[in-house]
Amino acid sequence: MLSSTCRTSSTRVSSCLRTLNIRRWYGAPPAVQSLDPRRDKTVQVTNSRGVNVIHDPLLSKGTAFSINERERLSIRGLVPPRQQEMDKQLLRVKRNLDACDNPLDKFIFLSSLQDRNETLFYKLLIQHLEELSGIIYTPTVGLASQKSHSIYRRSRGMYFSSQDRGAMSAMVYNWPHDEVDVIVVTDGSRVLGLGDLGANGMQIPIGKLSLYVAAGGIRPRAVLPVVLDVGTNNESLLNDPLYLGMDHPRLDGEEYYSFVEEWVTAVTSRWPNALIQFEDFKYPHAYNLLNKYQKKITCFNDDIQSTSAITLAGILASLKARGFQQDDLSEERIVCVGAGSAGVGVCEGIIDCMVAQGRVRTREEAYKRIWMVDHHGLLGNNEIVDDAQPDAKRMNELDERQSCYIKQDLPDCLPLDQVVERVKPSVILGLTGIPGVFTEKAIRTMAQHHERPVVFPLSNPDTHAECSAEQAFKWTDGRAIFASGSPFKDVDLGDGRYGRTNQCNNSYSFPGLGLGVTVSRASRVTPNMFLETARVIANLASRSQLKEGILFPGVQDLRNVALAVGTRVCEVAYDEGVATAKLKPGELLADVVRGSMFVPDYVPLVHQPY
Ligand SMILES: NC(=O)C1=CN([C@@H]2O[C@H](COP(=O)(O)OP(=O)(O)OC[C@H]3O[C@@H](n4cnc5c(N)ncnc54)[C@H](O)[C@@H]3O)[C@@H](O)[C@H]2O)C=CC1
Ligand SMILES: CC(=O)C(=O)O
Ligand SMILES: [Mg+2]
């Protein structure tokens, strides 16, 4: 086994940025306000003093307060006498982190560091992004969510529960910050592939927002993680005396939608410019909420739309890796296993791209290139008799979105292995949340028909992936182009070669999207932003990396990826007329975006009374 740590492609990312840099903005009138006045800030003004400064994670510098600051902020004597700068602090926290026995202990350690000193937390996270994203994000965040009620230490974010109905527009003022740029909200109904985790789902918005800050450069004080606690249908949580969420089954139907409506009204009235990311909502609520709000407020659904962007990027990059034209997706034969929020979202993105490339005349023609398999087999409308239980009838109950994928020339509910035999797909996508759904037979069949079969088991965490990297390379004699939702190590093929793994996760797309939307103050998140995100990311790997099966820069490079994506999203926002921030004439968008990214360095603290 070989870890995939040294896979930096910063040079490639930089050259992509240079291309984006060429573009200047001439539309704004002269002498308008700078795009984001906060980016020039060199000091932090606070009305706190004494222990309130030391115990505020957004202000605290731990041991690094200067003598002058200790005087100014009345903290002299409240911290150890020696001023110790960040490099020493980083040494200490990294040693302590490495001494933790297991990933969950590391998660707890990092959470408590975040609760003490966010600047130091983000410095550490950015320095070790590849290693630590596997702790604060998938896969460990999955385990932490399952155990959240047992490991609870301190609250972060906001909870809106069924008992808060009628009070939400006042409650939002309990949040201490007037400026909120990004809100990630979940109802905990489908946390990764782990099912309904109720209020424990809070760890997901927290983890996503940590990546928004570390990779996307959003300021830590401008992010808000939220759980909508509408109850849970998870019996073991309901029966657990330590569970911290509401102890009733989930609200549904009209009650559910009016609850969400009250919350949306409350947050948009206090923070009208905030970007809202819907996260881990179960199908069909995920789609219904997106349809209801995407044209009214600045929002998107991560699982549907940014997963679509990164998966499309992966497929486009794989076309180049296989020696095909990137501008012709329509020759691909794609089997998508899992027809829920993410599966349908990903396939819609592929269809959008096929249509945009102009190689198919209609969406209907594009739908013919995708075969969608759910837990009853190939999507279809008809009842069929279950061979194993002849008395039982199975039926796919499809909605309008899923029905687009029905094929007339194949039997409904055809099992995956047979679908693969008949279709001979070049690409297989797994978005089921169910481990092991990709069978050896299916992957071996693909390998018989394609020199480099594209195998993407995208479900999270790693224990829920549709197959492992080892399996994919074993079943394809090392020829697979492999990408998974959670990280897998490269696989030693035993002949001096390694099967390269890629992480295909929306963490490559949402930080840059959020950055672009925030910097341009876009009033809407548009479909083109996702398509362009995919195009940018699809072109970040070098030719030699692609040849090896590496589709994207490594996770360590997520900040550069976000910069490239954010710049392009900004351009799209101005081109489409949804940007509301004003630029100075002649400003380079990439410079503006880069300049607005949060950098975790200590700045002088100044006390100013109310
Ligand atoms: N890599 C990434 O960036 C992302 C990965 N995902 C993963 O995708 C998975 C699904 O997410 P959602 O679509 O939001 O969930 P969902 O619950 O909306 O959809 C899951 C679908 O899989 C189907 N399914 C269940 N068992 C199956 C089986 N044995 N064979 C075929 N289909 C089966 C279900 O019937 C359902 O339609 C999760 O594990 C999640 O972690 C989701 C978003 C992003
Ligand atoms: C990555 C992600 O958003 C998910 O698995 O739900
Ligand atoms: Mg998600």
Explain how this protein is built.
Belongs to the malic enzymes family. This is Malic enzyme. Keywords: Metal-binding, Oxidoreductase. One of its GO terms (cellular component) is mitochondrion. The protein has 610 residues and is α/β, with parallel strands linked by helices. The protein is 41% helix and 10% strand. A 7-stranded mixed sheet has the order 9-8-7-12-13-14-17, sandwiched between helices. The protein has a 5-stranded parallel sheet with strand order 2-4-3-5-6, with helices on both faces. A two-stranded parallel ribbon has the order 1-18. The longest helix has 20 residues. The N terminus is likely disordered. The structure holds 1,4-dihydronicotinamide adenine dinucleotide, pyruvic acid and magnesium ion. Pyruvic acid (PYR) binds next to α15.
What's the average pLDDT?
Answer: 92
- Overall geometric form: globular
Tell how many strands the DSSP assignment holds.
Answer: 18
DSSP summary: helix tally: 26
Bound molecules: 1,4-dihydronicotinamide adenine dinucleotide, pyruvic acid, magnesium ion
Low-confidence stretches: 1-11, 16-40
Distance between the termini: 58 Å
Widest beta sheet: strand line-up: 9-8-7-12-13-14-17
Into which percentage range does the β-strand content fall? 5-15%
Helical percentage:
40-55%
The structure class reads alpha/beta
Rg computed from alpha carbons, rounded to a whole number of angstroms: 24 Å
The main pleated sheet reads as: 7 strands, mixed
